[in-house]
Amino acid sequence: MILIRHTTPAGAAGVCYGRLDLALAESFEAEAEAIAAALPPGPWRLFSSPATRCRRLAERLGPAVTIDERLSELDFGAWEGLRWDDIPPEQMEPWGKNFVTAPPPGGESFTELAARARAFAAEIVAQPDTVETVAVTHSGVIRALLTAARGMSLAEAFTLEVPFGSIHRI
Which domain of life is it from (predicted)? Predict the structure, then answer.
């Protein structure tokens, strides 16, 4: 399976976003072209998170895209769209100490994200099709799947580099 993180979103610097549907940066076309050039030739089964920043890239890569909610980024709940600096420390501190199992207010924990991402991967692996799977998704989902593939704990997820437009094979 090939996992691709979406391209650079516009206006994301310093903002808490997961499910927030951000626009794409002006660099989208150039980033999408570089990603397409780096992929092996198709055909692929092509999946995408429902977020526009993922869907647009997936649609650029191929005509038949299956949207799968399990590829969505972490739900930051009440923090969505806030500047990280504006999140009250009394909320941020407990989450920062235990992001694996503690959800942001009204959101989901990293354990919950990992469970749905890993369910997606298990379903793909169980299919007898020999066609390569490409999933356009988010850093949280990619980290959750990479930790599982590498035998790492979820607490180690943020030691993994997952820049915008990066491609990861598991």
Answer: Bacteria
